[in-house]
């Protein structure tokens, strides 16, 4: 089954292209890609797309190979999965990951593909997908943590023609929008995505008009070939023929099982690089599975390599034939239908940490710590005083890992184009107040280069409603490298209006909140790089002055400050000598303990029970109805607990907070609340 391209046949004749034309076309396409972003930002309605830019553009050649974009080519998966014709005036739409080989990875991503024709011949593709804030399903936001099937996660649209020969299929669109909670948002966001593709279509046709179709297509071939040659040289330089292996873990699946291993082995065979994920955990019962499209992974690997080694290489899909991807069927990264996939973001983020560990072993000068880790999500919904439905979807940020060239960024997205939702926007459009938005001192791992700090956002809810939380790195720590310390875990603390306090799991739905409750949404820090005792004491003092490191935290760097905040050089020298004499050999990777050690310390350090070892009883068949869904249970304690907890999952102990650094943070927050 594959798509059939309908066009007027044209001779596929390659022509010579002048260097100036090559540069003009390349930069024109790059500008068109950013113009696509601008169109979406100015016309979408949801905060996720309009404010945080959770949409990914693509301009491709006639074969679907990306020549400008951000997320790599996903058109090949669509063309393979679509059984029908592609004709001029058509626009395609899908939200089914399984129908397009993971070209999109969960039902919230609505993908629009527009074939670009010029003089009745196909000359390229424009495409974009954006994360819709809601696509129906069992919970607002459509990211149920306890789902065991994609059928619980919202409307699933197979590859269809949204526009056929220039005519919109209004009944199809109305049927899809009838399944979602905020159809006005979805309609506006879908129109924004479509308008961005129309913009790219216009720019490509202008280039064909200016230079001629044969010159334009030949230019794209040259751009792709230039990238292939450059990446082949890069791979030979940085990827060894001897295999290297690295693994990291997604903490839990939202149903109590975990952690789940992502394991990858990397080596090179001539010019070809092999990424083999044998040893990765079986698919999860919960919704953390990530249907990983091979081309998307090729893009991840290529971009990471370029950014770490040679940022001057211009990125496109030309190098894809040089990367061989091997992912076991039925694994966490290649689940079988109908496995739940809505919360795949945690595995997506963890892939970057795995790539960092792999490439860092190949080229120690490029070794970064961990910290991409996840993409924290918060959903808050309910009825306001006027009886109108409100629904917030927001992406939070953690600490970016420390790097060979410097400190990690504090509270920054793993995606470079993402931005935070302004607090003023949140307070203007939703019944809440942001009472704190701050860096969490000492949460970044200590090192010669400090890991980026996580952030604490304190949401005071002004209306009763329900909250969903999606995060990770609450059990495992973002590891440090070359002597650097791991970053602190993230945690979520709910301060009830009656003064009670509870630690909330990193993955939960149906968390009932009342007017006056405060949720402290605290994200993880990035791991540190290098020996903390080698960091310039004046830099540590400056970090303390800026509130990024505490006076006590400065002692991790062997730095002592006097009462005036000035470095005490004599006591600093003595403390550094003492610390150096008593510590063991510095590890290449510091995970903060083995999995078993983390399990033993989990309750005391996090306030939550550790996840249980996943039990894999085979792949689920298509469920008949919803009998396979588990029922959310509430811990049998006298303390008020949020609903949405899963039996056997990570449970808090009533009245307990976390200990050590986390306990200190909890008590500091409690004091701030009491002071109000």
Observed structural traits:
7-stranded antiparallel sheet, 28% helix, disordered C terminus
Strands in their spatial order, largest beta sheet: 3-2-7-6-5-8-9
Average pLDDT, all residues: 89
Strand coverage percent: 15-25%
Please tally the β strands and state the result.
Answer: 24
Terminal Cα separation, in Å?
64 Å
Using the CA coordinates, give the radius of gyration: 25 Å
Helix content: 25-40%
Quick one: biggest sheet?
7 strands, antiparallel
Question: What does this 3D model show about the protein?
Answer:
It holds the Pfam family Hydantoinase_B. By secondary structure, the protein is α+β, with helices and mostly antiparallel strands. The chain has helices at 19-43, 47-50, 75-81, 170-177, 183-211, 213-238, 294-309, 345-362, 423-429, 537-545, 569-582, 595-606, 660-675, and strands spanning 4-5, 55-60, 66-69, 85-86, 91-94, 109-118, 121-131, 160-164, 167-168, 244-250, 260-269, 272-276, 323-326, 377-383, 389-395, 432-439, 455-461, 465-470, 480-481, 491-495, 501-504, 507-513, 518-522, 589-590. Helix 5 (183-211) crosses helix 6 and helix 7 packs across helix 8.
In short:
This protein has 676 residues and is α+β, with helices and mostly antiparallel strands.
Q: What order do the helices and strands come in, and which of them pair?
A:
Layout: E1 4-5, H1 19-43, H2 47-50, E2 55-60, E3 66-69, H3 75-81, E4 85-86, E5 91-94, E6 109-118, E7 121-131, E8 160-164, E9 167-168, H4 170-177, H5 183-211, H6 213-238, E10 244-250, E11 260-269, E12 272-276, H7 294-309, E13 323-326, H8 345-362, E14 377-383, E15 389-395, H9 423-429, E16 432-439, E17 455-461, E18 465-470, E19 480-481, E20 491-495, E21 501-504, E22 507-513, E23 518-522, H10 537-545, H11 569-582, E24 589-590, H12 595-606, H13 660-675
Parallel strand pairs: 1-4, 12-13
Antiparallel strand pairs: 2-3, 2-7, 5-6, 5-8, 6-7, 8-9, 10-11, 11-12, 14-15, 14-18, 16-17, 17-23, 18-22, 19-24, 20-21, 20-23
